[in-house]
């Protein structure tokens, strides 16, 4: 089967709207300057690692299920091989870069020491072509995490893998565990991620502080009750590296309870997830336990993770991750009995049953951060628009930003006001927020809806220079990033 080719115009929704030329003359380019990071605290002495791994980063060919693509992979497979440890373990991961360009690895959601956070320019020098770097860090908290580069838009190639931290004290109570990586895919079959970014940059967009007047929307794309949720139409959407016409199959016995860890590794796509014929019980988000709640569908934004328990019926069922506001979906099959496989385009009725937003969950008692009045309140605005393409924070772009400074031991409150028509999954490194509006729900990635303000507290107990950005990777790369420093 030949790969489906998509033209640039089809891939980039921004190509479908206003011609940029008439707008460009009025715009000037903001010239980024380097943000000077504070000196990272010294790497702590961590002792002998309990888990050691080697991660070869390279150019490889991958079979997405009849569609093959040349792309960049961890260890030659998609998704990359899972790394698993126990809470409190020290991990040592040697990264060998065989790419023609620099790379880095960020351990998304892990409350690790700053020097291992994997952000070139803030916490380390990039790993050059032919170079290597060993990340040694303790993973203090159990949960579902993942790792990916923090270099350009490399996450929009095949560079991502799960990082699962088990809780030795957890009773379990399930028969099996599945890890699902959701992704949007263009590399090697459509416009390359770097070319997409170049097209966005060529629009020379600037952002202004204040409300967006961008009403362009995603013309020709579906609509979402959440508002705008992405800029790019992808040729494919994947679950665990497969397109829906050649899905992977997960097998279990009827009546078994399965823990499903769902990780959104996509660059530009928010997914709406449901398992046909089943109710899901949500137990964790971003690693932390929540008060269990049943739902038939849920939203997972880029960088978010959610764990659900499912009691399986007898038969063959589609687990679908529909690309929200776009056309297309990822699919994986759940098989506990006989029956034919559903079509690639199957749309379980559960998808249209009021999907749960993960930020609306309630934390379990054990997950709560002790309540405390903030020592410092920071107003943060999210700014920008799709046309001409520009995204930023506090009225400016990364490089021209003013880092948020605090002191060790402070309770910091961030009031994130989204002044755009787009939902932004905001991510903080090295910490997990407590959301006072949701009883102290713990999250490191929170979806801030259009024109919504989200209050997020954190305890400054992990000194360093910490990236704080939108996890739409194109938004982050165009400038929607700043840092927290202490
Ligand atoms: Cu964003």
Automatic annotation (TrEMBL):
<dbReference type="InterPro" id="IPR034279">
    <property type="entry name" value="CuRO_3_CopA"/>
</dbReference>
<dbReference type="Pfam" id="PF00394">
    <property type="entry name" value="Cu-oxidase"/>
</dbReference>
<feature type="domain" description="Plastocyanin-like">
    <location>
        <begin position="375"/>
        <end position="484"/>
    </location>
</feature>
<dbReference type="InterPro" id="IPR002355">
    <property type="entry name" value="Cu_oxidase_Cu_BS"/>
</dbReference>
<dbReference type="Pfam" id="PF07731">
    <property type="entry name" value="Cu-oxidase_2"/>
</dbReference>
<dbReference type="InterPro" id="IPR011707">
    <property type="entry name" value="Cu-oxidase-like_N"/>
</dbReference>
<dbReference type="GO" id="GO:0004322">
    <property type="term" value="F:ferroxidase activity"/>
</dbReference>
<keyword id="KW-0560">Oxidoreductase</keyword>
<dbReference type="InterPro" id="IPR006311">
    <property type="entry name" value="TAT_signal"/>
</dbReference>
<protein>
    <submittedName>
        <fullName>Multicopper oxidase MmcO</fullName>
        <ecNumber>1.16.3.1</ecNumber>
    </submittedName>
</protein>
<feature type="domain" description="Plastocyanin-like">
    <location>
        <begin position="64"/>
        <end position="169"/>
    </location>
</feature>
<dbReference type="InterPro" id="IPR011706">
    <property type="entry name" value="Cu-oxidase_C"/>
</dbReference>
<keyword id="KW-0479">Metal-binding</keyword>
<dbReference type="InterPro" id="IPR001117">
    <property type="entry name" value="Cu-oxidase_2nd"/>
</dbReference>
<feature type="domain" description="Plastocyanin-like">
    <location>
        <begin position="236"/>
        <end position="322"/>
    </location>
</feature>
<dbReference type="InterPro" id="IPR045087">
    <property type="entry name" value="Cu-oxidase_fam"/>
</dbReference>
<keyword id="KW-0186">Copper</keyword>
<dbReference type="GO" id="GO:0005507">
    <property type="term" value="F:copper ion binding"/>
</dbReference>
<dbReference type="InterPro" id="IPR033138">
    <property type="entry name" value="Cu_oxidase_CS"/>
</dbReference>
<dbReference type="InterPro" id="IPR008972">
    <property type="entry name" value="Cupredoxin"/>
</dbReference>
<dbReference type="Pfam" id="PF07732">
    <property type="entry name" value="Cu-oxidase_3"/>
</dbReference>
């Amino acid at each position: 089967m030949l790969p489906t080719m998509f033209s640039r115009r089809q891939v980039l929704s921004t190509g479908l709207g206003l011609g940029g030329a008439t707008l460009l003359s009025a715009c000037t380019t903001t010239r980024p300057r380097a943000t000077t990071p504070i000196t990272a605290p010294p790497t702590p002495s961590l002792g002998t690692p309990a888990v050691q791994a080697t991660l070869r980063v390279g150019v490889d060919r991958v079979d997405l299920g009849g569609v093959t693509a040349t792309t960049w992979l961890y260890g030659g497979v998609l998704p990359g091989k899972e790394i698993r440890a126990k809470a409190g373990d020290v991990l040592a991961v040697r990264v060998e870069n065989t790419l023609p360009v620099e790379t880095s690895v960020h351990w998304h959601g892990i409350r690790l020491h700053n020097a291992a956070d994997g952000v070139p320019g803030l916490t380390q020098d990039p790993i050059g072509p032919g170079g290597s770097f060993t990340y040694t860090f303790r993973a203090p908290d159990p949960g579902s995490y993942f790792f990916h580069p923090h270099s350009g838009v490399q996450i929009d190639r095949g560079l991502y893998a799960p990082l699962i931290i088990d809780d030795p004290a957890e009773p379990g109570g399930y028969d099996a565990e599945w890890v699902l990586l959701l992704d949007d895919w263009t590399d090697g079959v459509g416009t390359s991620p770097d070319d997409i970014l170049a097209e966005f940059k060529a629009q020379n967009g600037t952002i202004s502080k204040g409300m967006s007047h961008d009403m362009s929307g995603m013309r020709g794309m579906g609509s979402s009750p959440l508002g705008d949720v992405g800029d790019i139409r992808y040729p494919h959407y994947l679950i665990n590296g497969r397109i829906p016409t050649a899905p992977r199959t997960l097998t279990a016995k009827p009546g078994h309870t399965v823990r499903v860890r769902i990780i959104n590794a996509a660059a530009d796509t928010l997914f709406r997830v449901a398992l046909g014929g089943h109710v899901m019980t949500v137990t964790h988000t971003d690693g932390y336990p929540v008060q269990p709640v049943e739902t038939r569908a849920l939203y997972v934004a880029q960088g978010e993770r959610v764990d659900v328990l499912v009691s399986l019926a007898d038969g063959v069922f589609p687990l679908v991750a529909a690309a929200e506001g776009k056309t297309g979906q990822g699919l994986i099959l759940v098989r506990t009995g006989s029956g034919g496989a559903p079509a690639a385009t199957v749309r379980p009725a559960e998808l249209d049953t009021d999907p749960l937003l993960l930020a609306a969950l309630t934390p379990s008692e054990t997950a709560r951060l002790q309540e405390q009045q903030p020592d410092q309140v920071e107003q943060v605005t999210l700014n920008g628009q799709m046309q001409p393409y520009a995204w930023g924070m506090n009225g400016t772009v990364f490089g021209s930003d003013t880092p948020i400074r605090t002191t060790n031991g402070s309770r910091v409150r961030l009031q994130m006001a989204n002044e755009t028509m787009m939902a932004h999954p905001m991510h903080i490194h090295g910490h997990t927020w407590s959301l006072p509006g949701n009883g102290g729900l713990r999250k490191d990635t929170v979806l801030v809806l259009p024109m919504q303000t989200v209050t997020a507290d954190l305890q400054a107990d992990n000194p360093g220079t910490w990236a704080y950005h939108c996890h739409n990777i194109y938004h982050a790369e165009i400038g929607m990033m700043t840092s927290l420093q202490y």
